Amino acid sequence: MSSTPGDQCGEQRDDQQLVVDVFARACPSRSLLADVTGRWGTLAVLALADGTARFGALRRRVDGVSEKMLSQTLQALERDGLVVREVVTSIPPHVEYTLTPLGQRVAGRLRALVEVLEESVPEVLAAREAHEVRGRVGA
Predict the structure, then answer these.
(1) Which among 101, 90, 110 has a CA at the least distance from the CA of 36?
(2) What PROSITE patterns would the database entry show (predicted)?
(3) Which residues contact 120 (CB under 8 A, 6 or more apart)?
(4) Is the model more confident about 7 or about 89?
(5) Based on C-alpha coordinates, what's the Rg of the chain?
(6) Which domains does the chain have, with CATH numbers?
């Protein structure tokens, strides 16, 4: 991320360093963030962190995703360079998806976030309950 005010995403500074800023509307890092952190993107990346998988196996692993949404998500992750799609010419032919090295790095960070979130579920449930009680009292 850039900390220099006024820099536009993708501009090159005098020192030839590419300036990237997720807060800049047109910066590709923003759409990449959306692709990775969208509900299905995060789950697809995490599912592929366990290894190569066929489309059907991914769909079963990512409970609740439609075929259309999973397909669109995988296409976006492939476009962004996080996933490789390979058509396996066997009988019958099938498609397999694998994380790229970039995808593996992203998956590691996402896994750490998910671990914190999963460990925090009791705190979150208590906070939600307290919020609901406050809402009823204030109503």
Answers:
(1) 110
(2) HTH_HXLR
(3) none
(4) 89
(5) 20
(6) 1-33 (no CATH), 38-111 (1.10.10.10)
